[in-house]
Here is the input.
Amino acid sequence: MAKKRNIIVGQSGGPTSVINSSLAGVYKNAIERGFDKVYGMLHGIQGLLDEQYIDLSTQIHSELDIELLKRTPSAFLGSCRFKLPEIHENKEIYEKIFDILNKLEIEAFIYIGGNDSMDTIKKLSDYAILTGHTQKFLGVPKTIDNDLALTDHTPGFGSAAKYIGASTKEVIRDAEGLTYKKNMITIMEIMGRNAGWLTGATALAKQEDCEGPDLIYLPEIAFDVDKFLEKVKELLKKKSSIVIAVSEGIKLADGRYVGELGSMGDYVDAFGHKQLTGTATYLANFLQGEIGCKTRAVELSTLQRSASHMASRVDIDEAFMVGGAAVKAADEGDTGKMVVIDRISDDPYMSATGIYDVHRIANEEKLVPRNWVNKEGNYVTEDFIDYIRPLIQGDYQPIMVNGLPRHLVLNTGRQTTRKRGK
Here is the structure.
C-alpha cells in the first residue's frame, strides 16, 4: 500500500484577524495538490504533544466554509505559546513529536506564526535533518507586530493598521467634542513590545478631515518623561484637545518599561516576555498630576488583532497566498524555510511570495528604521506612512447574519480529538 501524503498545520502565538485566511490557503491548496489529509493541531505544538489534532475535512465542507474561515478572526485551531527546548536539552520531546508525525503519515508540517513559531520550525527541521526524518517543515508568517525579518511585511499587520488608523480618527473626533472651555489629553496605548509598526499606524488618521494624533512614541526610541511633559505643555498652549499614541513597550533610557512605573504585573510567558499593560494609564495619571487637566487612557488591546469586520482585502488575500505558497514549497521538497512577501511595486501595489531559510528569520526582529521617525522621536515620517498605506486597502465584507458577522467555529463534536491508546 502506498504511503499516504498527509499535511499537518498549526497556529501559534498571538492571533490576528487574518490568520485563518492562511489556514484556508493551506487547506485549499493541499487538497488541490492531491494531499490525502490535512490535519490541524489543536493549540499548536503544545496540543500536538498531547495528541490533540483534527481532520480538517470534518470542519470544512464547502467553498462557503472556506470563505467564512477567511473572515473569522483569532486562531480557528487554537494557539499556544510553547517554547521547544534545544535539541541537546531534551531529545525525548522531539522523539515524541516525530512518533506522532510518523503515525499520522505526515509529509509536511506547516506552522503559522511569528518569531517564536519560526524558532519551532527551525528546531524541528534541524532535528529531522540530524536524524534522517523525511518530513518537510515550513513556516507561514503571521503577526500584527510586523517584526519578522526578510519579509516586506507580515499578514495580520495591514488589517491591524487599518483598524488602528480608523480607531484613532474616531478617538480624535470623540475628544474634539468634549473640550468646550476645558483641556483634555487622550493617550492611546497600542500593541508593540520592541517594534513600533502598529503605533506608527496611528499616523494614517492624518487626512483632509483629521489632523491625526499630535504625538507618536515608538519603543525604538528611548522615552524621556521630562521632554514628554514639556512637549505636552507646549501643545496645550495651541489647542485644547491632544491625542497621543504610545507603544505598550516604550522604555526609559535605563531600559525600564514605562508601564513598570505604574502597576505592571509580574507575569512572564514561556519565551521570557513580560506582559505589558498600563503604559497609557500611567502617563495619563502622570499628566493629570503635573498639569491638572482632564486625561484619559484608551487601550485598544485585543481589538487590534480581532477586528475582522475591518480587515484589509490586501491583507486577507496575502494571508491566503502565503498559506498556499507554503504547501507548494513543501510539495516541491523545501524544508526549514519560511514564506515571505516581496513587494513588487507601490503604484499599483503588487506583491509576490518568496522563500527564505528560517535560520535567517527565527529570533530576529525587524524594527522601524530610525530615519522613518522624526528627529525629535515623537512622530513618524511620510516614508513610514507610504510604506503602510497600500497594505490597508480594500474591504472584505463579513457574511452578516441577524446584523452581525458569521464566523466558522471549530466543532470537535464532528470528530473527537485523539489521545494515545484511545
Residues 79 and 285 are 35 Å apart (CA to CA). The chain has twelve helices and 13 strands.
